[in-house]
Amino acid sequence: MVASGDTEQDKRQLVELAMKVTERRGEEISRATLASEAGLSRTVVDRHFPEEGDLFNAIIDLWYEPDIAIMEEVVASDLPIQRKFYEFYARRYIRERERYEEDPQTFALYCELGSNRFEDVRGYIDLADHYLSELIAQAQAEGFFPDLSINQALTLINQMVIAYTSPQVMLMISHRLEEEKLAAIIDTLFAGLAGGDRGAKGVSGLRAVR
Amino acid sequence: MVASGDTEQDKRQLVELAMKVTERRGEEISRATLASEAGLSRTVVDRHFPEEGDLFNAIIDLWYEPDIAIMEEVVASDLPIQRKFYEFYARRYIRERERYEEDPQTFALYCELGSNRFEDVRGYIDLADHYLSELIAQAQAEGFFPDLSINQALTLINQMVIAYTSPQVMLMISHRLEEEKLAAIIDTLFAGLAGGDRGAKGVSGLRAVR
Lengths: 210, 210
Prior knowledge:
2 copies of one chain form a homodimer.
Chain A: H1 7-25, H2 31-38, H3 42-48, H4 52-76, H5 81-102, H6 104-116, H7 118-141, H8 150-160, H9 162-165, H10 167-173, H11 179-192
């Protein structure tokens, strides 16, 4: 690799190369391996990735770059709120599905690497929660999800759509996931998600069944 | 181990021993290993498990035995249908959580073994689907989940409660799962799950966001 003089562009090329090598080897790679594969000195590689963990973090950032762009675009759009919720999930789901179908083994590899380094993926999850909170506030301003705090609605929605956001769940049941079903789930949230005890849990707890 | 003369009881004791050995070794064990650990001849072990796969299948059966009892009990109960749905999930979730909290590593081991042998776990999932179909039919007779076939309702409900049924998801987000949230999800299903396009997907598809 030849340095372009543009630091950001050089770094991005290195990260793209690191992903190719990771996929070929089927494991997380070190900065030393990347330097050797790129034909660069450790000094040059370390300038972009001062700590060993910085390389994998940069891979995570590149992996999630399109997802972040999708979320920003949907939140900024002027679609009706129910459509926004659907697009917020559907676009990312479709993108993940494409990546999965292109190469299920590589997809599984990144899932595994991501699971092992959950704290590094945390930043993306927090950002997704941030944007979802904005959408929930908009929905609540229009009367949806009544009697719930934003955080309560957030955790319930996250749990009810996890099949369409979790790469691990996609690995398990990809053949059962469809945009039509995601739409039905979003419709169900808008028609039915609210706070307060509405009958499922009951007053007598688990002992009620004899 | 000494044979009791009761074939079923002998087999059960062997399966319980096989689970202990599996947990100690952290991997699936063979019939040969079980025979050696039990101090029994291969002939005796093979009488209970004619094929190599029969041993792990018997472990799966024992693992799910309490879950099946829970489902049968709830389906046969005379609770209101919304309460039945909650108990159908909550009791199994609480049991799985207990197993997880007792020993997260062993729990993760069984998850891994189960993932590798998904076809063998399939029988339990099919049985759970069978009982859920019964509950859905009861709910629809009372006017819930309109304009959906039983199978459509089944797949949507399975996806919306997967956080409380999948051991793999429990491994990822156990700290975020709570009975109160499960109850809110069941209440949301009863208030909002229905068929037909109700606005999320829209007519213009993904291109609607610019």
